[in-house]
Specification:
The chain has eight helices and 24 strands. It is α+β, with helices and mostly antiparallel strands. Strands 7-15-11-12-14-9-8 form a seven-stranded antiparallel β-sheet, with no helix packed on it. It has a six-stranded mixed β-sheet with strand order 2-3-1-4-5-6, sandwiched between helices. It has a six-stranded antiparallel beta barrel with strand order 16-22-19-18-23-24. The radius of gyration is 23 Å and the shape is globular.
């Protein structure tokens, strides 16, 4: 247990088209790595037998909604947790249907790695391309192309090679992806998922789990640009304590550092960094801490504490790539609420710059609107100045959501360019 406690964390998302085997793959990972409880397995075996499946349907370990089990599809994002001696994993099983693309965006938004499944019989489909493109937009640096159901094409090497070539040609237009690893597998039978397959001696790479355990993600974090969005102001009843709580979204902050507070532009120094377990000399990206400042400044929720030399941009105008998530189209002139880090404001759409064709990754500058599941570039104007980075520089301070204030529904997810 000590080894598991010290293992580092990998967040991953499965994506791809309908019925490519995403839920089965996760079920196989859990089953073959001995992460399934006895009563869970007994229930899955019983349901599989009742349906006449002929063998245990491991996708039932993941598809938790009744509608998912009845239809044999994934609707909601299902999260599963497991650990090996080398690493702890959080898996987001995202839907394959086009109408649930917004769920895929939600599930993959915090992922370090995306597994794009491709059915070996069908090849690379539009939704597989769409999910690969969204993964690149979301700044996911590591992709695995899992060519699944190889058992149904007699484990033919040429089938695998053809899909890899097609994906490689498509991926030339993807930005922000550091590495793409193709793996041939059968999630149903367990080939190249946890254990290497005897059926594909022509494949010299590693099984999926071994790759997940060894892929390097420590260098993916931005440790150069300190970003501390203030989430909460903490004061004691006596008035002697005033701290600013939040999670460090980038970089490193140290006690004694001179810092800039945006949007006010005031400067001060960090007097102390507090945590539940006691004070720290420094805090790094991902840590939740409370900052105490040397000077009494007007700092509130939504402000960003940073170093002046590497400060984010402060502006009311921004340009972003948006994934649109609702039936009512996005058009110029529309008004929404914007949620950015811990900051909230209102925003008006100045211009729809273009709409991206997911087949060719070519922008269409003549598009006048974005419809459900469309992806395009948009210019926005906020009601008050906002401190932000490009998404490529910092995923936390370079992303936002748009909210329809009449329904309180999230209608769009944006990545600032």
């Amino acid at each position: 247990m000590a080894s598991l406690a010290s293992a580092d964390l990998l967040r991953l998302a499965t994506a791809g088209s309908v019925d490519d085997g995403k839920s089965t793959l996760i079920g196989r990972l859990l089953f073959d790595s001995k992460q399934v409880l006895t009563d869970q397995l007994a229930h899955v075996e019983e349901v599989s037998e009742r349906r006449g499946a002929g063998m245990v349907d491991l996708s039932l370990l993941v598809d938790g909604l009744r509608a998912e089990r009845e239809q044999g599809i994934t609707i909601d994002v299902a999260y599963r947790y497991f650990a090996t001696a080398k690493r702890t994993f959080i898996i987001a099983d995202t839907p394959g249907h086009v109408q649930y693309t917004r769920n895929m965006v939600t599930g993959a938004s915090t992922a370090d790695l995306a597994v794009i499944l491709v059915d070996a019989r069908k090849g690379l489909l539009e939704q597989s391309k769409r999910h690969a493109f969204i993964s690149s937009l979301l700044g996911i640096p590591h992709l695995v192309v899992a060519v699944n159901k190889m058992d149904l094409v007699d484990y033919e090497e040429e089938v695998f090679d053809t899909i890899v070539r097609e994906f490689s040609d498509f991926a030339r237009g993807l930005g922000g992806v550091r590495d793409i690893v193709p793996i041939p597998m059968s999630a149903k039978l367990g080939d190249n998922v946890v254990d290497a397959s005897d059926q594909m001696p022509w494949y010299a790479g590693t099984p999926l789990l071994e790759h997940l355990e060894t892929v390097a993600v420590a260098d993916d974090r931005n440790l150069d640009d300190a970003r501390f969005p203030v989430q909460w102001v903490i004061r004691d009843h006596a008035g002697d304590y005033r701290g600013y709580a939040g999670q460090l979204a980038g970089g490193i902050l140290r006690s004694g550092d001179e810092v800039l507070v945006l949007p006010s532009g005031q400067t001060t120094r960090i007097a102390r960094i507090d945590t539940f377990d006691g004070p720290l000399d420094e805090a790094v990206a991902g840590q939740s801490v409370t900052l105490l400042l040397e000077d009494e400044l007007d700092v509130s929720r939504g402000d960003i504490v940073c170093h002046a030399a590497t400060a984010p941009r402060l502006s009311r105008e921004l340009e972003a790539t948006i994934c649109w998530m609702t039936d009512a189209p996005l058009r110029a002139g529309a008004r929404y609420a914007i949620k950015h880090a811990t900051h909230g404001a209102r925003v008006v759409v100045d211009e729809i710059v273009d709409h991206v064709d997911v087949h060719t990754l070519t922008p269409d500058a003549d598009a006048g609107e974005l419809g459900l599941n469309d992806i395009g570039r948009v210019r926005l104007r906020t009601s008050k100045p906002m401190a932000f980075d490009s998404y490529a520089r910092n995923r936390a301070t370079g992303s936002f959501i748009l909210i329809d204030e009449s329904s309180n529904d999230t209608v769009g997810a944006g990545m600032i360019v």
